[in-house]
Write a structure and sequence with these properties.
There is one protein chain. By secondary structure, this protein is of the alpha+beta class. The protein has 5 helices and 19 strands. It has 2 domains: 82 residues; 227 residues, Beta Barrel (Lipocalin). Helix 2 runs antiparallel to helix 3. The termini are far apart. It comes from Pseudoxanthomonas suwonensis. This is Transporter. Keywords: Coiled coil.
Length: 429
Amino acid sequence: MAVAQQAQGATPADEAELRQLTQDLAELKAAYAQEVRRLRELDMQVQALQARLAGRVPAAGQVVAAPAAAAAAAATAQAAPAPSSTAPPPSQEGYASTAAEAEKARAESVSRSVSDVKEQTRTLFTQRFVIENGLSYNRYDRKQLTLNGFLALDAIFLGSIAIENVESDTVNYNLAARWGVLPRLTLNMDVPYLWRKTIYQKGGAGGAAGAIAQEETTGSGIGDVTFSGNFLLLPEKNSRPETVLNFGVTAPTGQEPYGIPWIVLERDDDEFIRFAVPEKQPTGNGAWQASVGLSAVKTSDPAIMFGNIGYTYSREASFDDIDNNPATVNPGDVKLGNSFYFGAGVAFAFNERTSFSMSLSNRLSARARTRYDGQPWSKVIGSDANSAMFNLGVTYALNEQATMVGLLGIGLTPDAPDFTLGFRLPYSL
């Protein structure tokens, strides 16, 4: 009765305001339900992409149930009363309801370009199994002036002047396998196949300063196989980079450079060998090697900073002939110089699929030592090296499983190659 009296006392203006508020409420409910559906759809797309990147495939029941859950949520939103203007919308599972949660979710999600950069620096542990095909080309050219004589009257050189030149081209195909054994441990195997061509040039052929003798030798075969591992020591946080322990062993499976027959091309009148070259080119160093190092990666959108440091130990090895004199056979031991390497760089993620990187790498190698049977160790003069490279790289995601990686290296020191050009294609299974 009281309600009827209130309804009879309502003015037309009150009735119009009620109709307007009811219409506004219905529009807000419809908009809220539409936003819920959109958020659910985006959430399912993000979860599906993250699952594919991590090598996981959602179950068929989950795929079918997700749209039904989204529709049920939308229907519930339509039936529910509109939230007040001061209260935040209810938090839905799978997406952020506040700015802080959105920032946290964005920080936790890793883009594809960042993952590709981490894969190249061996700091990615979300992939189960990866097959990588790589092809690289190295160019090396070294010239030196040889003087055989003496300086008379401090101004006139008496003797022979010759120019020696060595040009080397190497093509390396590398087949690699990466296996994510544990969430923090990845095991790797690299099997290279090399083809090498070296051109030797020597001036002063036949005693004439202007004459140049030239000979070309080639070699191909399996190189030294490497078994390695990567262990995640510290995950990345706001104030520290992701730190990874790297370790590996290289087996002397390639053709060692010792004991290869030499071809004599020119002798002096007293039968002294002036010009000789090996019959074929080696594909390995002939010694076991072990390495250990640390890698660090820090993401700072849109930049990814990385660096590494490590040490390589070479074990001494015995050979039937360690002398390059074709007329003699001298068995003995060889101890290659240990090396220390380090590098640092930065990569920029242009978008979800593409990134560009720049880095500097350097390897310092100590002198090698040789020992003939029954003789003491002696250092090989000129065998120490300082090889520095400036590297440029581009990664492009071809599809969900494959990435194309292009690399260009520029030699900065005489011991480094003039330049290197390489392509790699990692494929996630």
